[in-house]
Design goal:
478 residues, binds adenosine-5'-triphosphate, 25% strand, Rubrerythrin, domain 2, globular, 3 domains, 5-stranded mixed β-sheet
Length: 478
Amino acid sequence: MAEKDSQLMEKIVALCKRRGFVFPSSEIYGGFAAVYDLGPYGVELANALKREWWKYMVQMREDIVGLDSAIFMHPKIWEASGHVGGFSDPLAECKACHTRVRADHLLEEIGVVADEKMSETEINALFDEHRQNIVCPKCGKKDFGTVKKFNLLVQSNLGNFTGDTSVEPVYLRGETCQGIYVNYKNVLDSTRVRVPFGIAQVGKAFRNEITARQFIFRTREFEQMEMQYFTHPDNEMTEYEKLRAYRWQFYLDLGMKEENLRWHKHENLVFYAKEAYDIEYQFPFGFKELEGIHARGDYDLTQHSKFSGVALEYLDPQTNEKYVPHIIESSVGVGRMLLAFLTEAYVEEAMENGEMRTVLKLPKKLAPVKIAVFPLMKNKPELVAKAQEVFQALKSEWLCEFDDNGNVGKRYRRQDEIGTPYCVTVDFDTIGAGDPSPDGAEAGDAPLTGTVTVRDRDTMQQERVPIVELKQYFQEKL
Ligand code: ATP
């Protein structure tokens, strides 16, 4: 089983690099900590995940609309949200080698329950209690200093042309949902939505994360998919339960095994929160947060109303009741979801000939490339020409790849590793005399005649399909 493989993480990281899913940022300059770039297949997989999320959260819902707010926002927003004052993680620094680590993570590693929301006093007390067991992951010494809270907001100098330090800094957004809250009134005034309704958004967020570990699980620049749902105060918890069930189903519908998912209830809630659960996924390094689903009360709109001076109450057109809507949210990182689906899909298995193959058994709708088209041999122009015809005919419908490098076995291995569900091979039977075209045309000169082999990624079975029927065949399969 993949999840029992202690090398699984290293194997996934290696596959991501080798096959063009994820590259370390700025690699030729020695890399840039906790930032990654998506390669050709990574961007396809990420786009597919975002497409599925959007379909589930916007297209299929009559009560949710989309938004794309800017990364830069008025600095007051981050004061109102509490980020300037309280968006911080507990930082512990090893006195011997100066490695900085999150104190709550160090405690968790030795089995002590802790989280980033604890106050500086609380986490220091806990840290001191267990100090004798806390080991630096880099140098192995047990010599950490006092834990300090470190603010995660990333600052910019946007608009500050004179370098004036008294000017309030403009931040790169630490989460995308603030852009939703401050547009709540615009959406309400410009569309036909009525409470209860949601606003969904996908976009970049930035955090000065202390610990740069675990590949794309935690990065300093990342993309979030967030949906904020505005409800009547009395309905907040029923809507919350519905959202939890809906989000759980999203993962099952995309083929995740339920045994790899679990709920984590937050015990240490921020003062305004009603309830908070995470969906955790069994990553190669254990069950960790994949998505947060939180009931936030009226905190967000109340704060923005207070700081902006603009009333953000809702007037019910039917009952004339006026109230500040309560908010429930779903929030998940694209990179974290991508890592979860790669973990779920990664399989090593023995083939009939005894050789091993690595295959990404991604759901077809997530596969970066849907169909690969090969001429059996590279040095036979008639095979290459025919394979090109097939490729050209299919590529307007699906993302296809043409490959004539190496032998067919090697091409299969490569497509297996990037998760391509189907490989089409043009061979001598396709163009041969044994397979004349219906109108009796010369071998190879009439487009879209003959048959090809179609090989299934998961079963490795091949079947012959007439070229004229290929589109319909794939329409049914994909
Ligand atoms: P964590 O406890 O892992 O730091 P969090 O509780 O601070 O996460 P939220 O602020 O609730 O996370 O963010 C919502 C979602 O955004 C997370 O569930 C995760 O999928 C994603 N996310 C948050 N921070 C990061 C990050 N640094 N890198 C990648 N994804 C992230």
